[in-house]
Each structure stands twice: as structure tokens, then as C-alpha cells.
Amino acid sequence: MIYDDELTKRDWYMYRRGEMREYLRHHDIRNGEIRHALYQWVDTGHSVHDNPWGIWDETRSKPCDYLKAMSIAYNK
């Protein structure tokens, strides 16, 4: 079992980058501005599955992923 304190900042960075690549592959996002915003979010140490606005997906009882929350936040 791996504990959080055993992982370095680099380990977390590489994990989040892999998570982002998988997310982009699954969602087929081609818009350069959106991809750039997601890269910036992940490069600052966040997960693609979190968002800074605290927007929740009520159907899943989880936070919206970054891009879904961004579309909700800026379309209001």
C-alpha cells in the first residue's frame, strides 16, 4: 500500500498529468483554449476531477469536473 506521505510532488504531478491525458482522450476535446485552461489547472497541482468554483453534480453527489464546472460558471 502507498501512503500520501510516500509520494513526492513530482509523483503527484505525473499522476495528474496522466489523469488529464486520459480525460482528454475520453472527452475528445480539440478546442485549444479549453485544453490550455485545463493544462494550467492541472499544472498548478489540481485534478481534472475538481473545480475551483465548488460546483457539484447533484445526480452523482460529487464535484463537477473542471471543464463541466467551467462551462456552468461562465454560461450563467
Descriptive report:
The chain is mostly helical and 76 residues long. The relative contact order is 0.13. α1 packs antiparallel against α2 (32-43). Helix content is 53%, strand content 5%. The protein has one domain. The protein has helices spanning 9-27, 32-43, 66-74, and strands at residues 56-57, 62-63. The chain starts with 8 loop residues before the first helix and ends with a helix.
Task: Using brief descriptors, characterize the structure shown.
mainly alpha, 3 helices, globular, 76 residues, 53% helix, 5% strand, two-stranded antiparallel sheet
Short description:
By secondary structure, this protein is mostly helical. About 55% of the residues lie in helices and about 5% in strands. It has one domain.
What is the ordering of alpha helices and beta strands? HHEEH
Averaged pLDDT, please? 87
> Uncertain regions: pLDDT < 50 for 5+ in a row?
none
Q: Sheet with the most strands? A: 2 strands, antiparallel
Helical content stands at 40-55%
Q: Termini distance?
A: 43 Å
Secondary structure: elements and pairs:
Elements (H helix, E strand, L loop, with lengths): L8 H19 L4 H12 L12 E2 L4 E2 L2 H9 L2
Helix pairs in contact: 1-2
